[in-house]
Amino acid sequence: MGTRDVNGAGRPHTKRVTKTLGRRRFLKTAAATAGVAAFSIGRRAHAADEITVFTWETYHEPPWVEAYTAKTGVKVNIVNTGSVDEMYSKTRSGAIEADLILVDSGSVSRYVKAGLLAPFDAAKVANVGNITASLDWKGINSVDGQLYGVPYNWGTQPLMYHTEKVTPAPDSWGVLWDPKYKGQVNMFDDSYVTFPMIALYVGAKDPFNLTDAEFEKCREALLALRPQIRTIAKGFDDATSIYGAGDAVVGYCQNIAVVTDLVERGLPFAYTFPKEGTPSWVDNFVVTERGNRQASYDFCSECLSLGWQKQFVEFSANNGILSLDNARAAAINEDILKNTNVIDQTAPGFFDKLVFFLPPEDFDRRLEIWNEFKAGG
User: Fold this and answer.
1) pLDDT of 43-80, one tens digit each?
2) Residues 52 and 163 reside in one and the same domain
3) Does the residue 67 lie in any domain?
4) CB 231 within 8 A of CB 133
């Protein structure tokens, strides 16, 4: 897959943009009644005409949910999370008792092993056929042959660079280690989403199941990378500021919206999908035992409809789950589509370059090596 420049309008809000509370409100209840605390919303006994959804900011905006309630009579309580870890811990502790949860593919088995999910009956989701056929969503959402979720949104984390200062156009993660860019490389502070890129660069057979030898190669690669980096970005805004100030010209892109923002400011940035593979993610609807009922599946189906996906993609500049043909059938703004991967997905072999997140073999070991990297070795 070649390089792609981006242009046009778009609202750069996506789940993977940041894990800081500044860009993702900690908890929000879109349909909570007056006087009900956010943390108590999931603790009320559910009724057949009421569901609670544990989700991410910009995924289920109040006007959309209110319109659904007006149409169906089903009340939808929305609770937003601030991070992957927060979502898991609050679900496991019972602080939030949800019917539906928006879980990334790399975390599905974590929930299953903790006994937090029911198998997902995709046959009960009428609009499941709207999911782009190019996405192997059944494979990445199955545990021991059992399906546990359907996708709502997906995205990529490619290589980004300044088109005038990084030449020729790079096609490998190896450019991050090029001495001529010393002090001008950017990474973002998240071991979970960054480590797979390092593993791909060192040639690991499976970036989510590293051998001891591959772990050592990753450690050495990170230590060699440290002098290349002046600042490690703390989130979306931080990364955009670093590139905008000229303190970085190339790096691992937390989300393509970073590139979009910079281009909108008149700066010559682009992104590309390296030959070693590009880490990518899928956020999925999963159901809990209490949520394993038709009201939950009906809401999932609504969120996969062309109309819902249109408002979601146009509002957030996310990819959603539609094919390009369906996105155009939904009349999604073409300029916004140019700022997503919806058009990219039509290129031959595009998905072959993507490596979707799966559960890593050892969270703690990865974090230990990452913290060593941040400390400078």
Assistant:
1) 444 556 899 999 998 899 999 999 999 999 999 999 99
2) no
3) yes
4) no
